[in-house]
Amino acid sequence: MQGLSRAIYILAVGIVLALVVHLVVVLAIPAFAERDAWQRLSATGETWEFQPVAAAGTGTGPLGPTDAHFGSIACRFDLSQDALVVRAEGQLPFWSASIFTNRGQNIYSFNDRTAVGGQLFLLVLSPIQMARLRADPPAEAEQAVVVEADMEEGFVIVRALQEDESWRERVSNFLQAASCERFQLPNASISGEPDLVIEDAD
Amino acid sequence: MRLFIGGLAILIIGLGLGSFLSWVSVRDNQGFGALRVGPWLAWPYAGSAQADPYTTAKVAAEGNVPLGAAEGVVFIAETDTQNQPLQRQCRYRLNGKLPQARLWTLTAQDPKGAVVADRLGRPSVLVSSDVVWFEPRTLAVNIGEIHETGNWLAVDGTGPLQLVMRLYDSPVTSGAGISNIVLPEIRRVQCRG
User: Fold this and answer.
1) For A31, nearest residue in chain B (alpha carbons)
2) Is the C-alpha dihedral spanning B22, B113, B101, A107 positive or negative?
3) What residues of A are in contact with residue B24 (Cβ under 8 Å)?
């Protein structure tokens, strides 16, 4: 009888431990995943450069299954270095863009209907860079979708619909000509230190 | 010695069961963050700040990039409306209302997520612009190897099948809410062999 109660005790403590292990493992996976989207993009492409994620018609790519009717590209950026500007030329029936942190959390997404004139022109800035932009906004910024993101490393993914083969060339031109670059803020100080006077002016 | 054996048993149960539970729950993830509509499953908050820990873990482990709220939402069906597993050797009829969306695609894939092919080797995909509507907002698609009149998603081969419905630029994710939506039924018509 003593053996039985001991076995029950061991089982009960084991199950409690199992639940703790389960919680820790599930919560730790995002931090320790070595094959998450950020790691995969880091392995196959440079920062500040678009890389193909999936060609239309394939439905698969380095980031797992994608929609076979879409071509997509991704670009890693780092707001602690510079603000980001993304541009693409051309009108398509549908495209979308999405900003993620390096942990794979979606910060912002939009599509061609949200963009000015259906053109992809995106600025992503940290709060400090945003304050500098607001202090002296360049005229071209009015045409842009401007996103303030309190983050450092991240990536942006652009997906473009290819309804059928007749769109293949236009979609692939759109994606190939898309640019992902450092955005030069007006009066960017060489030191990169935040200008407190300008920040207060906001 | 008895203390050692007891401690070892607790460790084995704890680590073994704990790891197994984590693996199964993250792989299947049909719990907290999953939305079920008939045979269709979606993880509408995947990748967002509102996502539950299981969905976040699944996205990280699989290296996926989920659609953002202004992009769309993905629904996956592994069974028909009668809860029978979908098979490539069977014909199905998909029928019913769709939520409002600017466009959508319907894809046939295998359990690993690879798009299956029709008899000519073309990917089994359908996009909303290809579709003929017989009734407003009511979609009817024949799925299988035999061509029938109306909308047709050609699927060839044998083995398990998944149907993926992707809605793009839909109020379902960009404001109106996803909890009360309706998706088409999937009815088995006939199977080969």
Assistant:
1) B60
2) positive
3) none
| Residue of B71, B73, B107, B153 to mutate, testing the A interface (most A Cβ within 10 Å of its Cβ) | B71
The backbone torsions φ and ψ at residue B85, rounded to the nearest 5 degrees and listed phi first, read: -60, 140
Which of A5, A24, A106, A110 to substitute to test the interface with B, most B CBs within 10 Å? A106
Complex prediction ipTM: 0.87
Residue the block writes with tokens 């309804």: A163
Q: Left if phi > 0, otherwise alpha if psi is -120 to 50, otherwise beta: which for B157? A: left
> Quick check: B60 and A29 in contact, CB under 8 A?
yes
Q: Do B15 and B56 belong together in one domain? A: no
To the nearest whole angstrom, how far is the Cα of B34 from the nearest Cα of chain A?
A: 16
Q: Does residue B12 sit in the same domain as residue B47?
A: no
| Tens-digit pLDDT string for chain B (193 aa) | 788 888 899 999 999 999 999 988 888 877 777 889 999 999 988 888 888 888 999 888 888 899 998 999 999 999 999 999 999 999 999 999 999 899 999 999 999 888 998 888 888 999 998 888 877 778 999 999 888 788 999 998 999 999 999 999 988 887 667 778 899 999 999 998 7
Question: CA of A87, closest CA in chain B: separation in Å?
Answer: 18
In this complex, do B67 and A98 lie within 8 Å of one another by their Cβ atoms? yes
The alpha carbon dihedral of B127, B129, B132, B135 has a sign of positive
Percentage of chain A beyond pLDDT 70 is: 92
Q: Indicate if B157 and B105 belong to the same structural domain.
A: yes
CATH of domain A37-201: 2.60.40
Nearest to B57 among A18, A26, A53 (CB): A26
The CA distance from A168 to A160, in Å, is 10
Distance CA A121, CA A89 (A): 9
pLDDT number for residue B109: 93
